Automatic annotation (TrEMBL):
Protein name: Helix-turn-helix protein
Species the sequence originates in: Baia soyae
Amino acid sequence: MLQMANYEFIRKQHVLLEKSIRQISRETGYSRQTIRKALRSTEKPKYKLTKPKKLHVMGDYKDIILEWIRQ
């Protein structure tokens, strides 16, 4: 995954220096599809968890505690 600095570098190369996508791809080693994706994106890339984190300390007891609170 590209970091924000890489996105900015790619945009700068394409817009300010008017380099082609193919030339940026050759210089950076990223695929042309990745370069296009970086040029299309306008927001900061975000990390997405594939599955939610488990609550290690309270995980097993959370339901019991919530039931006590409800009562």
